[in-house]
Amino acid sequence: MAVNLGKYGIWCWWNGVDEELAVEIEKLGYGAIWLGGNPPGDLAHVEKLLDATSSITVATGIVNMWTDDAPTVGASYLRIAANHPDRFLLGVGVGHPEAQQEYQKPYDKIVSYLDQLDEVGVPAEGRALAALGPKVLKLSAQRALGAHPYLTTPEHTREAREQLGRGVLLAPEQKVVLDTDAERARATARPPINNPYLGLVNYRNNLKRLGWSESDIDDGGSDALIDRLGLHGDAATVAAGVKKHIEAGADHVSIQALPMKADPLPTYRALAEHLL
To answer: What residue ranges carry the coiled-coil annotation (predicted)?
Structure first.
């Protein structure tokens, strides 16, 4: 892998990461900053964070294929890669059908988009695919550096590694809540997990493939499901849960601190003592 993500990174909404936070995350020793929430295809924010730091990788998690065309995104990638070699990973994906009126044949859209990225010179090793199911996981091994699954468990990571084989990037996202009060932690984790993800068909189908029932997924999610998707406890407990992805075959885990509107730095500082 030309791009070095390290074992652990952070995942934040792209407009919630400024240069100051990026510098602090780099100082803590995390290997990557994943920018979620469909960052704009000009990737200006990515470039700003790379300019402010010296070694950490910035990745998009993800640029939405329906909202930003491949030639624009490809040109942005080439600009950034020229200025910051081996420090940017372009994560792309199709999102979910409920969000796009034009959402049709997502697999064909992915293939077409990757073809266009090829045409403008974006190398396979410079990009990752949002992937949950077997078909897109296989494509991520064939046409990208690897896969960036979102809202998953170590069980999914284990299955994904078996499907991808060795030598292919597997970088799942994991939500965490640093709180030893279980009820309070679930009250923090449940809203951003339930809305929108537990209502979206691709995430529901993935959870059902992993053995979760409709009753686990409906009505805000069972406590057992929320506990797996939003790890909670003290820093040592949460870090141990994050490590389970590595033990299951992940190369890298992107950690999303909840609640989303709170300052994530205390969580990342506490976890760094156990992970880095």
So the answer is: none
Nearest alpha-carbon partner for 190 in 207, 175, 208, 173: 175
Name the 3-class secondary structure at 228: helix
User: 72: closest CA among 44, 97, 51?
Assistant: 44
Q: Give the three-state DSSP class for 151.
A: coil
Q: How many angstroms separate the CA atoms of 60 and 92, rounded?
A: 7
Model pTM? Answer: 0.96
Those residues whose C-beta lies under 8 Å from the C-beta of residue 66, and which sit 6 or more positions away, are 94, 95, 100, 102, 103, 109
Q: Which three-class secondary structure string do you get for 26-88?
A: HHHCCCEEEEECCCCCCCHHHHHHHHHCCCCEEEECCEECCCCCHHHHHHHHHHHHHHCCCCE
- Report how far Cα 103 is from the mean position of its chain's Cα atoms: 21
Residues whose CB falls within 8 Å of the CB of residue 181, separated by 6 or more in sequence, listed in order? none
Say which CATH topology domain 8-176+243-275 has. TIM Barrel (3.20.20)
What are the tens digits of pLDDT across the range 203-224? 999 999 999 999 999 999 999 9
Q: Exposure string (b/e) for 151-176, b if CB count within 10 Å is 16 or more? A: bbbbebbebbbebbeeebbbbbbbbb
For 86-102, write each residue's pLDDT tens digit: 999 999 999 866 555 55
| CA separation for the pair 198, 123 (Å, rounded) | 34
The rounded distance, in Å, linking the Cα atoms of 56 and 15 is 18
